[in-house]
Amino acid sequence: MQIITLTTDMGLKDHYVAAVKGTLYKSNPGVTIVDISHEVRPFDVAEAAYYLRSCFEDFPEGTIHIIGVDAEPMVNFGGSEGSFPSILVYKGHYFVGNDNGFFGSFLQENTPEAFYRIDDVLSKISLFKFPTKNIFAPIATRIVAGDAIDSFASTYSHYKKALESNAIIEPNLIKGKVVHVDNFGNIITDVHKTLIERFAKDIPFTIYYRNKDYYIEEISATYNSVPVGEKVAIFNDRGFLEIAINRGANGSNGGAEKLFGVRIGDVVRVEFTPKGSHNTLESLF
Fold this sequence. Notes:
The protein is α+β, with helices and mostly antiparallel strands. The chain has helices at about 15-25, 45-55, 100-105, 130-145, 195, 255-260, 275-280; strands at about 5-10, 30-35, 65-70, 85-90, 95-100, 115-120, 155, 170, 175-180, 185-190, 205-210, 210-215, 230-235, 240-245, 265-270.
């Protein structure tokens, strides 16, 4: 069974997603199409990369992932090199999209098995009007058919990377940021469990978000480790620090995003108290 996933910024109000799916089914009647998200913020390739990184390994090797975010190729616009339809091969998966920063953002510091730029793009400018349907879907069809990628694409040595900052470690401090807010209003950060585990297990810490008035002093195993309506910090399925309201949601009684007023890009700090310093500080008063 061949699986093709779709990640786009098209939304679901219009006919665009249906047109892409129809094109794929017309050429590949036996495929299974899975929607990852069509609600990526318009042109936000870093968010698209976040979605794919979060779930692509849950699919079998050989899955083809189409990324229709900021999809229109750009040819030497504004003196830049431009961005071209490309294929990334990574961990046995195929990623088809525009080289607009997505591929580098998705990979972060990892190395792909291969990266290709699609040949003969400039002679088909008319396809640029709907590239996800007119360029990316046919590329996926050729991969499904077993065509050798180097028969229609050329190996390329580098790819662009969208600007992103990663959580950093300073003395007694991890400084990260909010990278995503999910449908429940849960705040997901770029602070990974492995960063926190670099500090000794018995060192007290405080997680600050938004400002000093908003903090949590422990990381729980599950949402239900705290009473309903209470703030909670957990490591999510991918090991990243997440701040939530147990049983809270933006559409009901309010999730963490709305209750705390936290936004994507806001700083999250995990401050560690060196052994003995807390008692010494209190003794000054």
